[in-house]
Task: structure prediction
Amino acid sequence: MSADQEFEKLVKLYYQDLYRFGFSLTRSEADACDLTQQTFYIWANKGHQLKDLGKVKGWLFTTLHREFLQMSRRQKRFSDEPISEVADNLPHVSADVVNRIDAQTMLGVLGQIDEDYRAPLVLYYSEDLSYKEIADVLEVPLGTVQSRIARAKTHLFQRLTQTNHRSHQSI
Amino acid sequence: MNTSEAKERLLLYRGPIDDADPQFGEALAHARRDPDLAEWMREQSRSYGTIRSKLREIEPPRDLAEKIIRERPIPFRRGGTQIIRKRPTSFRPSWTQMLQLAAAIVILAGITTVWLNLSQRGRHQLGQGQEVVVKGEVLDMTCYIAHNLSGPQHAECAKTCIRKGLPVGIKGEDGKTYLLVDKTQPVNAELADYAAKTVTIRGKETMRDGFSLLQVEEIRKF
Result:
């Protein structure tokens, strides 16, 4: 297979997942497209440096996230937060409630969650990455990833509950 | 491990993808012994699956993959240093692009005016031109001038634009581009299906306000 064919195959395999991740982070179609394109642009120039081709997916997500951070020009601080009490305080949100919410509303709700929490939550839900891989993509410690996901789930469920109440009231 | 501790662990459990993760082993074993915890876990799992499917409903623009592949940078080496030929164009319109677009709209408005006038004036005024035969690609002039879009990747859009009556042109093999006009009626209907394809047109070449016009006499679609 030629280099062009390999590149094309890789794009077709991952561009949708990368776009979804980018769109969840930025909530902008143009920014998500730019991030996806930029990720493959970097791959085309630096991908040959990756020794283990089994890690291509993680590499692409890491690159997109780095580009996003660069785009948003935010300084990040890492902190571990205990998961304890999160499980007990998790609001009950049934699958039926979630089913009534469309994808755009879901994205709107996700957009209300702080950026530090949103990225791990999106990877947790939409990509088949292990926690170690999510930590590698976001370049934060494993414990931080897990605590952020747990806390982000609480935020998400609280907001979904509020959204559901509002939609009931408006009927 | 008590139920509360098991719940704390299982909050992050997503299903088979996490089965190999040792941090969940003990909590899963606890859930097998505790029906209430097992039910809580099933409900969590259903919510997880539903939210996941909602997020996966997000679809990228149809042409994203094509654009990425088309604009793939072709690195080349010079003196041992890798040089990037060009960066891909952004999806976010820049001020420069907005200005270019505005300029293109002004130019197109001019072209359209000329084109409409010529269509109405009839043959005799343009009949003075020199007869030429041009072989080349059928262009949708709006997208070609405004965005430099042409070729097979743009064929569907070009076909739609031409069919809707936007100005149609031909780019000859020598690179010269003509706005196509007809003596009595627009050539759009006849050429829409040949957008981005090669045709040969015999006609009279004239100039109007700096634009090259080709008054169509005969179209050979091969």
